[in-house]
């Protein structure tokens, strides 16, 4: 079964009365709090999810910008969203699935059935479906989550990963090459990592590309079924989208949640620049 649902499929699920909980995970680097945009128009019944406090936690700079939340924090959040045992959770955003994928990655580890809305909110509005402007409050859910973290790797594991598999840097090429770094203290990439930008998996409308194209993109860097693969980005958000896409084509992937924000804030970590891994 696909990790994605179309706007039409989501609308049909809501109309059917199926146990579906829709979450709005609007977040961007330039707009970490998307609540105002949520109130300006969201999918009817969707609960707003603040990524920074419910899908991440805060720590030292050496932990990265978006460390994993505890399982208890995530469970409390999911219950606030009204998630009950057996519910299907569908996450969306307005930024090509980046932040929605973080919710998918965490909830999937926790044993929740979860999907991402293909194309996000723009796909919903393009389909002519209605928006709501209320601040949705729901009765608390009773979901019980499994322990999360098994799909994450540490900074030391990320350093060693190219020796046994393929470490993907999914940031924009100029950040990978070290030509531009808008957020972190050092520019470049983890030695041995190969660059496959997240944008390579989406069309102009932010919808997922066809299976053959996705497989071909990964195969170019040696990632095929059975390959040991992990992904990182700036702070562990975009990398979850690559894990989502890899899972869609049948390839299991780990994520380095600390990503470049942790690596570049940890003294002594080597840095590579240019368009080659080493």
UniProtKB/TrEMBL annotation:
EC number assigned by the record: 2.8.1.2
Indicate the enzyme's highest-level EC class: transferase
Pfam families recorded? Rhodanese
Keywords attached to this Swiss-Prot or TrEMBL record, sorted alphabetically, are:
Pyruvate, Repeat, Transferase
Under InterPro entries, the record lists:
Rhodanese-like_dom (IPR001763), Rhodanese-like_dom_sf (IPR036873), Thiosulphate_STrfase_CS (IPR001307), TST/MPST-like (IPR045078)
In this chain the Rhodanese domain maps to: 16-133, 161-272
Q: Which GO terms describe its molecular function?
A: 3-mercaptopyruvate sulfurtransferase activity; thiosulfate-cyanide sulfurtransferase activity
| SUPFAM superfamilies assigned to the protein according to its UniProt record, in alphabetical order | Rhodanese/Cell cycle control phosphatase
| Official protein name in the record | 3-mercaptopyruvate sulfurtransferase
Q: Which organism is it from?
A: Microbacterium foliorum
Name the gene that codes for it.
Answer: sseA_1
């Amino acid at each position: 079964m696909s990790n994605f649902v179309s706007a039409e499929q989501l609308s049909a699920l809501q109309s059917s009365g199926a146990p579906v909980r829709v979450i709005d995970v609007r977040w961007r680097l330039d707009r970490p709090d998307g609540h105002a945009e949520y109130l300006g128009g969201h999918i009817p019944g969707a609960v707003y999810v603040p990524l920074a406090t419910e899908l991440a936690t805060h720590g030292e700079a050496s932990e990265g910008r978006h460390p994993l939340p505890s399982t208890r924090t995530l469970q409390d959040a999911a219950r606030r969203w009204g998630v009950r045992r057996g519910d299907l959770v569908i996450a969306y955003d307005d930024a090509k699935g980046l932040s929605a994928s973080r919710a998918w990655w965490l909830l999937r580890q926790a044993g929740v059935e979860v999907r991402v809305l293909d194309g996000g909110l723009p796909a919903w509005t393009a389909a002519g479906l209605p928006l709501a402007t209320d601040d949705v409050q729901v009765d608390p859910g009773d979901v019980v989550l499994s322990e999360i973290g098994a799909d994450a790797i540490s900074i030391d594991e990320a350093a060693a990963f190219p020796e046994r598999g393929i470490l993907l840097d999914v940031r924009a090429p100029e950040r990978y090459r070290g030509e531009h770094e808008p957020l972190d203290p050092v520019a470049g990439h983890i030695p041995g990592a190969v660059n496959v930008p997240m944008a390579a998996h989406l069309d102009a409308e932010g919808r997922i590309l066809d299976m053959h194209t996705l497989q071909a993109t990964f195969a170019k860097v040696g990632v095929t079924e059975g390959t040991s693969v992990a992904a990182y980005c700036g702070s562990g958000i975009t990398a979850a989208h690559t894990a989502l896409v890899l899972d869609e084509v049948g390839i299991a992937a780990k994520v380095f949640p600390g990503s470049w924000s942790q690596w570049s804030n940890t003294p002594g970590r080597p840095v590579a620049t240019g368009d080659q891994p080493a």
